[in-house]
Amino acid sequence: MHFPHRHLLQIEGLHPPEISALLDLAESYVLLNRSGKTQRDLLRGRTLINMFFEDSTRTRTSFELAGKRLGADVLNMAVSTSSVNKGETLLDTAATLNAMQCDLLVVRHDQSGAPHLLAQKVDAAVINAGDGTHEHPTQALLDALTIRRRRGRLEGLVVAICGDVLHSRVARSNIHLLLAMGSRVRVVGPPTLIPAEAAALGVEVFHDMRDGLKDADIVMMLRLQQERMRRGLVPSSREYFRFYGLDFEKLSLAKPDALVMHPGPMNRGVEIDSAVADDPVRSVIKEQVEMGVAVRMAVLDTLSRKTRRND
């Protein structure tokens, strides 16, 4: 398998063969998980620590499940009750983790760049589970796997990423991945929620939802991250939904078989209507959750090969 990197810190900079290798391996884990043969011995004797400085349900749980299905010893570090909450620095935490001889470290942090810093200081392979507004690489991989399984390819598809792009690490990772794999990417949202450098990334920018969704193959909605916003970026949740929330009227402008995605958690009635989110034909939101476990198994499997010690 061609993946020369010791860590997975971002999608930016990964080459298409490296992305494809991870997706192909994840595909095999989808089949394995569905067969019911979930327990493997690939990571027996290895230690996986999940260290989440921000709240998470889907990502932390799926990394935990992925590690256990591969046979790893999994530790969920409770940051809120750890020494970090008592003032310990990130570098001191890194020294502690090294002393524990951790093999794989999954990190979510509210500061962009924190996983990169840890990767320089720990012996473990570091996986970025989301840092600030920078990137969320495994989310982009699971989104790509979901699309590829449904459409058979990524190349040539028109993907509209809609909503709060400014604060979304998911959007950034998806933009890098989809462009690398040959998709056409649009970002759609109010001017206050589209980063100034968006066009320079190679995407098409739309401020009118209807124009942005026209003939799209994939409609990827983003959570409105009000906890990261300063006042005045959106007038109200009701007004936001009127212009940028996905309902069937707006979705009708996309291709008739366009798929609807959302990384979760969803603000129903704010960025997406419940009827659309729960539509059994168009929505693949539940499938994204399933693909998340398989992708994270593939990432843990791949990176563990870089850190395996002599037993």
What does it look like?
With 311 residues, the protein is α/β, with parallel strands linked by helices. The chain has eleven helices and nine strands. It has helices at residues 16-35, 58-69, 90-99, 114-121, 137-151, 169-180, 209-213, 237-244, 248-251, 274-277, 285-307; strands spanning 47-52, 73-77, 104-109, 125-131, 158-162, 184-188, 204-206, 218-221, 259-261. It has a five-stranded parallel beta sheet. Strands 2-1-3-4 form a four-stranded parallel beta sheet, sandwiched between helices. α1 crosses α5 (137-151) and α5 (137-151) crosses α11. The longest helix has 23 residues, at 285-307. It is globular. It starts with 15 loop residues before the first helix and ends with a helix.
Order of helices and strands: HEHEHEHEHEHEEHEHHEHH
- Unreliable sequence segments: none
Largest sheet: 5 strands, parallel
The quaternary structure here is: single chain
Strand content: 5-15%
End-to-end distance: 23 Å
* Extended strand count: 9
What structural class do helix, strand and pairing data support? alpha/beta
Helical content stands at: 25-40%
Strand order of the largest sheet: 7-6-5-8-9
Mean pLDDT: 92
Give the overall shape: globular
Number of helices: 11
Radius of gyration, whole Å? 19 Å
